[in-house]
Design brief:
By secondary structure, this protein is of the alpha/beta class. 28% of the residues lie in helices and 28% in strands. The chain has helices spanning 19-29, 69-85, 114-125, 154-162, 179-189, 231-242, 261-266, 296-307, and strands at residues 10-14, 36-40, 46-50, 58-62, 90-95, 129-133, 147-151, 169-173, 193-202, 205-212, 219-227, 247-255, 270-276, 290-293. The protein is globular and about 60 Å long.
Length: 317
């Protein structure tokens, strides 16, 4: 390993959700991934064994709570308990994708706020810090009473689109809630923004209403934090073309891409979908239209800065 990190007290472990990203992060930092095994008993219970001493170490655990969400969440909770009992100095959970983040408020009577419950579980298990990437709602940071560092993928997405040298770009938010995110990308690309006004009659069903802003004759870049069933983003892309956009690109941080998402993207007006590797994509989701960008250098730099007690926010200046 060419760039070896010299402090032996920094340990990076990976669980099962995104081993490829964890290996990349460890390589950028210059450490070997910590040795641990995640196995199952015959009844499905998870068993974790840490196979090296971590006494007095600052441990960073890479785990996205992506599909299967509950399995990956239990893995990280059990890992925290194992690390605590093995006398880790600090337990830092690096969660590129924070599952249950969309359940962040009571939208109707008698609903849970599951994003808060997950925060409580991580704290109660014994985590000292969470490093997250593009939480669905920034207010989720307030659900934690432990330290939390919030990363942003917009610079990575902006660099990618800058490199394509697109002409007459307009950045489009697929809903009112994503305007701040669209503005950040637009500022970096020095482009105007537009907003799609939509109504969602029920979960995972979006109805496009109208477009606020000038998109005629322009190259549109749709941006969202999560693309799940891809209903919103594909309807938005089709509406943009129908209203005069010359071509449509799309991007997001978290490619959940569940259910009919891949078929919808294949059959949509989207020319290309740029996503990050916050969630590992299985082979059937790696279609020609989908380009995956790595967040490993960003997360690795954040881990080093946290470990060396340097500023993390300056990463996004």
């Amino acid at each position: 390993m060419s760039n070896q990190y010299l402090d032996p007290n920094l340990k990076v472990f990976s669980l099962n959700s995104n081993l490829g990203l964890a290996e990349e992060i460890a390589e950028v930092i210059g450490v070997e991934l910590g040795k641990c095994s995640v196995t199952h008993f015959s009844d499905g219970e998870i068993h974790i064994n840490i196979e090296e001493s971590i006494r007095g170490c600052d441990v960073y655990v890479i785990q996205s709570t992506s599909d299967p969400v509950n399995e990956h969440l239990m893995e990280v909770l059990i890992m925290i308990d194992a690390l605590k009992r093995a006398s880790a100095k600090t337990i830092n959970i690096v969660m590129p994708y924070y599952g249950y983040a969309r359940q962040d408020r009571k939208a109707r009577a008698r609903e849970p706020i599951t994003a808060k419950l997950v925060a409580n579980l991580l704290e109660t298990a014994g985590a000292h810090r969470v490093i997250a990437l593009d939480l669905h709602a920034p207010q989720i940071q307030g659900f934690f009473d432990i330290l939390i560092d919030h990363m942003q993928a917009v610079p990575i997405l902006a660099d990618y689109f800058e490199g394509k040298n697109l002409k007459d770009v307009v950045v489009v938010s697929p809903d009112h809630g994503g305007v701040t995110r669209a503005r950040k990308l637009a500022d970096r690309l020095k482009a105007p923004i537009a907003i799609i006004d939509k109504r969602r009659p029920r979960p995972n069903v979006a109805e496009i209403m109208n477009i606020v802003g000038n998109i005629e004759g322009k190259t549109a870049i749709l941006i969202d934090d999560i693309i799940d069933t891809a209903g919103t983003i594909t309807l938005a892309a089709n509406a943009l073309v129908e209203n005069g956009a010359t071509e449509v690109y799309a991007c997001c941080t978290h490619p959940v891409l569940s259910g009919p998402a891949i078929d919808r993207i294949k059959n949509s007006k989207i020319k290309e979908l740029a996503v990050t590797n916050s969630i590992a994509l299985c082979e059937e989701k790696k279609i020609d239209k989908v380009v995956q960008l790595s967040v490993a250098p960003l997360i690795a730099e954040a881990i080093i800065r946290v470990h060396e007690e340097q500023s993390v926010s300056t990463l996004f200046d």
